[in-house]
Write a structure and sequence with these properties.
mainly beta; three-stranded antiparallel sheet; 1 helix; 10 strands
Length: 126
């Protein structure tokens, strides 16, 4: 069972079953929120257990999405598409080994100009 936490441990997560292959998002919102690239895996609600949820602060990033982070240490943990039965969970929050590998890059048309993507994985402009 994949497990993880925020930096201070106030929020812990468990996922029942294997993690889906993650993607790396290069959009401007993810870069600004995370400080670089946001790598996450989508987890169906019924497979995700969050302990310490009262420590999550939600930021309404758009009409359709909210982003969750620890109100104590600031760890950026969740990308939650409102009214969808899944949550994207930060790959950096999981203890290793995660049992999965990056599958693709998304929103590469918006990526920062200070780095190149050279891992050979599929790249989607949007």
């Amino acid at each position: 069972m994949p497990k993880g936490s925020c930096l201070c441990g106030a929020i812990t997560i468990k996922v029942e079953g294997e993690l889906a292959p993650p993607d790396a998002c290069h959009c401007s919102q993810c870069r600004k929120q995370s400080g670089h690239v946001w790598a996450s895996t989508d987890v169906p609600e019924e497979r995700l257990t969050i302990t310490g949820a009262d420590n999550i602060t939600w930021y309404q990033a758009s009409e359709k999405v909210r982003r969750g982070f620890c109100k104590t240490c600031g760890s950026y943990l969740f990308w939650d598409p409102i009214h969808h039965p899944r949550t994207a969970v930060a790959m950096g929050a999981f203890d290793t080994p995660s049992g999965t590998q990056l599958e693709s890059h998304i929103y590469v048309a918006d990526k920062g100009d200070y780095y190149d993507i050279g891992d050979g994985l599929p790249q989607n402009a949007q």
